[in-house]
Specification:
alpha/beta; 40% helix; Isopropylmalate Dehydrogenase; 12 helices; two-stranded antiparallel sheet
Length: 351
């Protein structure tokens, strides 16, 4: 099969980790007889430098015309003080322009990395496998905002339609997992959260095989540390999902391990690690490429619907870890620290 992938290396370590993913995908495509064509697209800080905008219309159209998008990372202190422009606006533009309203973030603790998790053995002995489904294109990040004298405001607003479609993604995921959804909100304070609860109850009434419970976001942030195994699928709003998924990432030992998929109604999605651009280690060949490589596995699973290929990547990552390969962020004192290139080679060798 032939696939056209829009590749957005971005800023900081983005080019290094996407380069690693390409090497793995090339090895995978050779094994399974696929052909992958890459079209490099600028977005983020590099686009500001070249074109004066974090995302051009041409870049967005390239992404929309592709079979899928693989993104590294955007941003960095270099662009922090440009009035009215931030590299991260590229992400909002891509999500909105491509109609990507649901972000799927699996939080999985590999057996080989249990020692890297900050949680005690008795807490993680049951394992850790959570899927966070975060709404992407609504809420406070997209609501009306501004300044009024010495005051500033940001507005949280959701429509029933926006809520229904992301809960729908959560239902699809729960049916393939352990059939449990936890809706995380702040319904004791926020009217928008009360609407989330109303819609969830109505939709889940048609799925009696799925257990639905509700949890306030402050409690959820504590429960992720106290007893993460109680969760299966977490569905939540844009801002709460942003914060909780970053918290959950550290339960796996490193934010460098977590992939993500941004999906809409079409098969074209955007896949990226949840970590940032880490400009302090850019170009040093020390970044952990596994989150980006695992994001590529999600691409094969969700956009291309090729489960065997996705499993081949995931197994290769697991085997590389079993063989003791570790970048600095997941290494224990007994490990020899591997470079980005060495970790990538270990995964390729296991495809």
């Amino acid at each position: 099969m032939n696939f056209n992938i829009a590749l957005i290396p971005g800023d900081g370590i983005g080019p290094e980790v996407t380069g690693a993913a390409i090497r793995v995908l090339d090895k995978l495509s050779k094994r399974f007889g696929h052909k992958i064509n890459y079209k490099e697209v600028d977005a983020g800080g590099i686009s500001i430098d070249k074109y004066g905008a974090p995302l051009t219309k041409e870049a967005l159209e390239e992404c929309k015309a592709s079979d899928s998008v693989l993104l590294g990372a955007v941003g960095g202190p270099k662009w922090d003080n440009i009035p009215g422009i931030r590299p991260e606006q590229a992400l909002l533009g891509l999500r909105g322009g491509m109609g990507l309203y649901a972000n799927l973030r699996p939080v999985i603790l590999f057996e080989e990395l249990k020692q890297s998790s900050p949680l005690k053995d008795e807490i993680i002995k049951k394992g850790l496998d959570i899927l966070i489904v975060r709404e992407l294109t609504g809420g406070i990040y997209f609501g009306e905002s501004g300044r009024n004298g010495d005051s500033a405001y940001d507005t949280e607003k959701y429509s029933r339609y926006e809520i229904e479609r992301v809960i729908g993604k959560g239902i699809d995921a729960a049916l393939l997992r352990n059939k449990k959804i936890t809706l995380v909100d702040k319904a004791n304070i926020l009217e928008s959260s009360r609407l989330w609860r109303e819609v969830a109850r109505e939709m889940l009434a048609e799925y009696p095989q799925i257990t639905l419970d509700f949890m306030y976001v402050d409690n959820a942030s504590m429960q992720l540390i106290r007893d993460p195994s109680q969760f299966d699928v977490i569905v939540t709003s844009n801002m709460f999902g942003d914060i909780l998924s970053d918290e959950a990432s550290m339960l796996t030992g490193s934010i460098g391990m977590l992939p993500s998929a941004s999906l809409g109604d079409s098969k074209t999605g955007m896949y990226e690690p949840i970590h940032g651009s880490a400009p302090d280690i850019a170009g040093k060949n020390t970044a952990n490429p596994l989150a980006t490589i695992l994001s590529a596995a999600m691409m094969f699973k969700f956009s291309f619907e090729l489960e065997e290929e996705a499993c081949a990547i995931e197994s290769a990552v697991k085997n590389a870890l079993s063989q003791g390969c570790r970048t600095g962020d997941i290494a224990e004192s007994s490990h020899k620290i591997s470079s980005t290139a060495e970790m990538t080679k270990a995964v390729c060798d296991n495809i």
